[in-house]
Design a protein that fits this description.
Elements (H helix, E strand, L loop, with lengths): L2 H21 L10 H10 L1 H6 L4 H17 L6 H8 L4 H8 L3 H20 L1 H9 L1
Helix pairs in contact: 2-7, 4-7, 4-8, 6-7
Length: 131
Amino acid sequence: MTDQEIKQYIDDTVNATVLKMKMAGLLKEKRKTAVEKLEELLRNYKTFKSIKGKKQTEKLIKQVDKALESIIDDPYYSIIELFYFEGKTRDSIAEHYNTTVTTISRNKTRLLKKLTPFIFSDEVIFEIFLN
């Protein structure tokens, strides 16, 4: 391949990736932070997990599962499950942990920040959308 062909291939790939991410709701005109995108992804995790036969969706779910496994030993891990998968409120989660809503919010934010690089790193995006 010539340098020009490689450049064109890269441009086409980037444009296709951006389009797919927009269609998946991961990119919008109003820019969302990586944490906001992650929260949206976690809220829709069960739906995405039920989709079969879609290669990119299956890769995304595998990556989310891998990310969740990385924090599973955290004492506040179940905040993610309770809040995003079961739709529990911060108040009910605070009762579950016998702590304050502030503690729940702080730990939820901390866990999301740990998960974000597992989902939105360049390598992961390349793996999901380009391989």
